[in-house]
Amino acid sequence: MMSVQDTIREQVTGHKVVLYMKGTPQFPQCGFSANAVQLLKSSGVNDLFTVNVLADPEIRQGIKEYANWPTIPQLYVNGEFVGGSDIMKEMFENGELKSLIAGA
Fold first, then answer.
1. The pTM is what?
2. For residues 44 and 54, what is the distance between their CA atoms, to the nearest angstrom?
3. Which domains does the chain have, with CATH numbers?
């Protein structure tokens, strides 16, 4: 049986762009998650893998420990932690997010 950290590591490394969020892209459960999805779509993400942390309390806590980052949403690109919604917004505004996504 895999640990929560193993599950998260598999999700993060098994997909190019991973967003841990509250809700789903079609029905986000918080404004920050909705904003994160919109920023990624506007940056050209077509193959977004999302994890609804509200559906699994162990993942919700485990992802905070995995990146040592206290808030959700959390973005991972090519297995690397990028940041939360504030960092994503800043990267989007200066063009870094689109470049990072294009490189994925």
1. 0.96
2. 26
3. 4-103 (3.40.30.10)
**Residue 2, pLDDT score:** 86
The angle, 0 to 180 degrees and rounded to 10, between the axes of the packed helices 96-103 and 31-42 is 70
Secondary structure of residue 31 in the 3-state scheme: helix
Mean pLDDT of the chain: 96
Distances from the Cα of 86 to the Cα of 3, 5, 68, 89, angstroms:
29, 25, 16, 5
User: Distance (Å, rounded) from C-alpha 61 to C-alpha 46?
Assistant: 27
Report pLDDT for 1: 82
CB 16 within 8 A of CB 67: no
Distance CA 55, CA 69 (A): 19
